[in-house]
Amino acid sequence: MKKIDDKDFELANLPIEAQDPEITKEDFVLQDSDNAVHEQKFQTKPTTFFKDSMKRFAKNKSSVVAAFILGILILLAIIVPFASPYDVSKPQDVALSNLEPKLFNNAGGFWDGTKSLDRISSYYDSDLEHWVPDQEAYPVTGIVGGVDGINVGDEEYTNIADKNGFEGYALVGYYGSTGVNTVSLKSSNPAEYIGDIKDKQFALELDEIELTLTNFEVVDLAKIRELEEDDKIELPQGYSLGLTSLEFNYFDMDEKKYVPVTIVEPALTHDINPSNTVNVKEKILSLTGGEHFFTQFYFTITVTPASGTPADANVCGLVRNMVIHDSRADDVFVPTAEEPINPHLPEIEYFSIDLGRDLNGICFNNAMSFVARNLEIGYGVSTQTNRGYWNIGSSRNYSKEVYLGKCRFVSFVFNSYEATLGETWEDSISLSILRDYKTAGWVTLRYSFDYDEKDKPYLEYFELHITDKENCPLLDDLDMDDVVSVRAVKGKESFDVRARVIKYKFLGFKEMPKFIFGTDKAGRDMFKYVFEGLRNSLGLGIITFAVCFLFGLIWGAVSGYFGGNVDLAMERLTDILSGMPWIVVMTIIVMHMGRNFVAFALALCLTGWIGTASTTRTQFYRFRGREYVLASRTLGASDARLIAKHILPNAMGTIITGAVLMIPSVIFSEATLAYLGLGFQDRSSLGVILSANQGQLFNHPYQLIFPAVIISLLMISFNLFGNGLRDAINPSLKGEGE
Question: What is the pLDDT of residues 301-329, one digit of tens each?
């Protein structure tokens, strides 16, 4: 009670009128009545945690782009395998192999199924009267512009073995003076004499033939020095020319060893040519005591250092040509620039010893063939053959190389689609296919089988006429001359024909196909194959992520929240599991369960949860002592509520970031196993595709580029997406930026 003048203030002390005052509206006067006063609305709106998180995520542009890319990849992985009409479950027709990526037509080389090729080895085709590349790999039908589209370069010297090369030397030598270097043309080397050698072994009978060394051309030093002065070649460093000799080596049955017979003595140069020959037969007979029948033998070119050669010199022999002529041989082939050795010329046996027939010659005028080719040796009347080959010692001190060979290289634009899917020959079109064409109304077909006296069926008549040239794959009418084989079994008679076809129609396409990502070596569409592999890889990653994340979250939450002995026991078990290399765990499970999806998922889940558990445990240790957790515990909150309601939401940002990256990590782990030969066996994946196509990096790089780009996009996008997700679900940032 307030005191007034040391007296207690009481209502009774007031005047009578003050004790019951009369209040009127005039007593209430609004101050500042000239200004209107209104209630203002809150600047923020009530929201949910999810909406607030999405707003923060949307402000992170890089994360939004990453999420968009991930969405597109996932959609393509779901849609493409079902929408694409191509079959990638098994290898396709060889004509579909290694087709370049094609999205456009005639786009000047950009994604139109063509590629520019430079410095492709060529040979002279006398029919086309032009230098062309290997027609099996690059047929003229696929070269844009035909032979007119081939840009032919000048003759070049090369030391690289090439089957289309001509002239040149075979460089035979060894480094230092470690021994004598030999190059030999060997027979089949039977271990012992067996019965009738004519029918069973590779043999040489000198009483039936005359053998003459008609050419043994070694280095032309004057020419080499001239080329060196003109800067056209560069001689090997430390080059020293050695002495070359020619030997005949035969196996002595009594001594049980090979005995050498010198045909041409060691010398720096040899003046042996068609007008100055050596009688090989007489040399062998005189030096072997009249022995004329050999079952194990080989010719040897030997190089030895010349007198005064330094001990550390590179001693070489440069041999241009060596021909041993058989008196019965009709011709000895000597390759030239116009007729180099290549598989497209008429078949010539470069070295052939046939019992009772020819010894065409041991010829490596073409130094390329000397290095690169295995030479077939026929014998007897049998169709079997032995292999004769020029061989060199396996010592690392030996070398055998091409030296100063000549090549012509060409450049051109190649369309792989036109080359393999355009007009081509089909060698074995079966009767069932022709019947299908007749059913479709594309051809008229007449044929008949008859039976001989033994009731054996044979094709009596065959005739086919094309009635629908627009749809029919065949280009010409057919008759009996086009039949290549007949399978005559009574009741199931059939035959095959050879015909010109439009290959893409023959394979069932209505128009020339387009493979956006090209095709692999098995003819599979890389677009479907890659996204089917992505689907399997993503499926493995998502399933592994879901299992490992859930289990790791529970394990880490319990360990981090309770601590003490519980944490100690759980951590020791985790340490044991983490100490086991995942590659070992994976290998053991795959070996026992097979290379299938379930085995991979199980192996990755066994230890994949440890990282999530460790991160969760760390976060729980960080947040469990905070004031809001202690306050909730004081108010009676249970352990489960504290974990789920208070600690976990605050720790989730860091946990989810690391966990999301588990998906690309699983994909990379599977890719690593695929490179080790432990990839999926029952389905495709990005790792399996990369592993299968790694050998195509230089010839067809797109087979690696497309799956590699997708794996890279996955890794980058998941990383950015995880960072954005971490910031978005962090409760401490709620409302920030509003």
Answer: 777 888 887 777 777 777 776 677 766 55
* 253 vs 192: CA distance, rounded Å: 8
Taking the C-alpha atoms of residue 367 and residue 183, their distance in angstroms, rounded to an integer, is: 13
CA–CA distance, 537 with 597 (Å, rounded to integer) = 10
Q: How far apart are CA 212 and CA 327, in angstroms?
A: 8
Which residues lie closer than 8 Å to 137 by C-beta, 6 or more apart? Answer: none
Residue-wise DSSP of 299-338: EEEEEEPPTT--TT-EEEEEE-EEEEEETT-S------SS
User: Would you state the structure tokens that stand for residue 294, as one six-digit string?
Assistant: 């050999």
Torsions phi, psi of 277, nearest 5?
-105, 165
Output the CA–CA distances (angstroms, integers) from residue 578 to 287, 540, 565, 571, in the order listed: 75, 21, 20, 10
Query: Could you give the angle at which helices 526-562 and 564-578 cross, rounded to 10 degrees?
Result: 150
**CATH code for the structural domain at 544-689:** 1.10.3720.10
Residue 486 has φ and ψ, to the nearest 5°, of -130, 130
Contact 655, 736 (CB under 8 A): no
Phi, psi (rounded to 5 degrees) for 527: -65, -50
Which of 46, 45, 48, 56 lies closest to 729 in space, CA to CA?
Answer: 56
Nearest to 715 by CA among 536, 551, 597, 538: 538
Q: Using CA atoms, how far apart are residues 573 and 580, in angstroms rounded to an integer?
A: 12
Tokens of 8: 């207690």
- How far is residue 149's CA from residue 131's CA, in Å, rounded to a whole number? 11
Q: What is the DSSP string of 184-209?
A: EEE----SS--S-HHHHS--EETTS-
Residues of the chain with pLDDT under 70: 1-21, 26-49, 160-161, 163, 170-204, 208, 220, 231-239, 295-296, 298, 321-322, 326-403, 489-491, 730-738
Report how far residue 93's alpha carbon sits from residue 76's, in angstroms, rounded to the nearest whole number: 26
Would you list the domain boundaries of the chain?
104-159+404-422, 169-403, 423-506, 544-689
pTM: 0.69
